[in-house]
Hints:
The structure holds two protein chains of two kinds. Chain A has a five-stranded antiparallel β-sheet with strand order 3-2-1-4-5, covered by helices on one side.
Amino acid sequence: MCLAVPARIVELADDRAVVDAMGNRWKCRTTLTPEVKLGDIVLIHAGFAITTIDEEEAHKTWELIAEFDEFQKEQEKGSPID
Amino acid sequence: MLNRIVTAQKQMDAACEKVGAQINIMEVCGTHTVSIFRNGIRPTLPKRLKLLSGPGCPVCVTDQGFIDVMLELAQRDDCIIATYGDMIRVPGKAGSLETNHLSNIKVVLSSDDALKLAEKHPDKTVVFIAVGFETTTPATAVTRKANAPTQPAATWK
């Protein structure tokens, strides 16, 4: 699985966390990053937090993902080649 | 179709002209390389636009034979195949996990989800295709380790 998504830890109990990215929330594990705290931004890969990242870096990625979304919408309107 | 190719070529030429320098685009995935080759895209590109094959990952360079074995297992009534989403489009000799439209191929987002699937279907053998990177392997190991007591000792050693 080639993708990792930055997400903020909004709930944390042992190594079970609920994370939030752009309003989407899901469960993940923090077994591999025991140092994380509530409110930290982590990189989620295959259901596990694999590292913490800073606020600025996370926002850059979220903005990029939002751009993909815009691109997708444009594509659905029709290709310029047609 | 031909018209569209010519139009696309004109647009690419214009775009390259605008940039005014050599453009190198890296294919970040082996499946891009394969698609570009199969569809004969490379010869249609402007001279200034060069495609470079980038780093293949463990997923897109998975052997066709491996996919074929998974497809064979997926035909069995007593098996469920659990896989990360990226694996389903990698082609074997008889198509991919996606193109075969088999109902017992399930996409999971984590190794834990594969385990949950197994708990939900105690009468089936769930085969988790754990192909991935060095970043995916620890996750698989965590799931495996956490559930070690229920595994037969012989396979765990």
